[in-house]
Fold:
Amino acid sequence: MIQTPYYLIDKSKLLQNMEKIAKLRELSGARALLALKCFATWSVFDLMREYMDGTTSSSLNEVRLGHERFGKETHAYSVAYADYEIDEVVSHADKIIFNTIGQLQRFEKQSSGIVRGLRLNPGVSSSSFDLADPARPFSRLGEWDMAKVEPVMDMISGFMIHNNCENGDFDLFDKMLGQIEEKFSPLLKKADWVSLGGGIHFTGDNYPLTKFAERLKRFSGEFGVQVYLEPGEASITRSTTLEVTVLDKLYNGKDLVVVDSSIEAHMLDLLIYRESAKVHPNQGPHRYMVCGKSCLAGDIFGEFDFENELNVGDRISIQDTAGYTMVKKNWFNGVKMPAIAIRELDGSIRTVREFSYADYEQSLS
Ligand SMILES: Cc1ncc(COP(=O)(O)O)c(C=O)c1O
Structure:
């Protein structure tokens, strides 16, 4: 038995998402790039590479990882590049997408050898969180004024538009794409390629994949563009668990258990967006509040129902823990960093990374 805590990536579950992505690519002609900001655990890139076209990035480190560990098409994007990193970024990318006209002009010379694009902000999004809404008022994410973009069209050949956030509603996607078409039509007609970003939950159960593919194909045909998607969450959803062990039990008006992990350190997004973790099947007569072991009072995974009473030493599998977890984990409280393990297609499990005191020490100085 592997020592907890550890993230366990199940390749057979990952494969289910990959097969949907492959089907979408085939039906729509769109290309799919893994968004490394969401998931960058390169030990499973060998599998993902078979089904996806490459990666997209949000920094020099990500573009380098994408180039070196994934290969295939490598898109570079960042909210802002620094002078000291641009040459290296360009060396790893086959396309660079600038967030603003200012950055495009500033790095015109350095980026002249690769395909260039610009991020557009359509002013509409599907986000229900202000924090994650790219179209929020005064957003810095992309250009929105067509009159300013027109004059730089000779420097770019495409656009990136990311305005879907956790969107499992095809009709909403369709409506927003219609708004994009209406707003940016003259620019889109001049483009060779358009990336529609991530945030579309097309690998979920019951998502109308064929309708989605037809819509992408129509968009591509109407404007004569190669469509790209940048699925993060959709690529890895439901593929991974965080395996933890109960360290302590107490009753403070509710039954609580403390586990050997921390939501603050290992699943930070749940805390940021005030969401509960998931446990399956979450049924049974024994309800517990599952708490993390950091000192943060609100370090709580959630309240769940269990078939049996929980005791010290019992293991719990926190579900759906691939996205925005391993890329965001931190050393708060010096809590033991979860190892990373993979369940191979034949069912065997191998640990691909363990973290030690030396890693903690070396993260500081
Ligand atoms: C530009 C861009 N592309 C892709 C993604 C991936 O989104 P998701 O993981 O929701 O699919 C994001 C997420 O923030 C993004 O900002």
Q: What stands out?
A: The mean pLDDT is 98. Residues 35, 37-38, 162, 197-199, 230-234 surround pyridoxal-5'-phosphate (CB under 6 Å). The radius of gyration is 22 Å.
